[in-house]
Amino acid sequence: MTEQNDSQESRQESRQAKAGAIIVPVTLFEQNCTIIWDEPSKKAVVIDPGGDVPKILDAIKQTGVTVEKIWLTHGHIDHVGGAAELRDALTVPIEGPHVADKFLLDNVVASGARFGMTGGRDFTPDRWLDEGDSVSIGGLQFDILHCPGHSPGSVVFFNKDLRFAHVGDVLFAGSVGRTDLPGGSHATLISSIKTKLLPLGDDVGFICGHGAGSSIGQERMTNPFITGEL
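The structure assignment produced for this chain is given below.
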């Protein structure tokens, strides 16, 4: 699976799995809110609706999918600021992140105020996710990897058939998630990447929380945080 900005669709067939995805950049942080759907059912999930909910709803309408779930990679405001509003608008459950990020979801309003972001609400997801869990949308199944470090409750969504992952802010193209926020730990983050993500295989492509996506192989070879140059 490859990513495309705004309403440009991408589709890839691998084995029997078919999926499409669009990225909707939201908030001043240009966070990659991602809509992924199963083909041909058009059943979809919204990952990390950080804000700008009208923009997300418009993208859903233009894509012609039926959103049945919201998934969260972690609890930082730029990833969850619009989650409660979108849940109410679509009447769908929120799944994730790991319960270790509960303190962040309990303080969405306060976090938003620090960045001038209004409209967010504190909330509890309908399901917390943990290592070894799985989530699905239509015929697509994603395994859950608990990858703390950027936040204590960060999770990664991995689809074996598509050789694709959504890694949130754990790993970026050429970089890794920041660890200077409450609950962050650089050592823990690097351990999560090396023990959870790198073993997935070099052929696995990923969408991350900000910026362009990449592949595990590319990052293994060139990411200075992984090669030990930083």
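Interim note for the steering committee: The longest helix spans residues 186-197. The CA atoms of residues 23 and 34 lie 5 Å apart.
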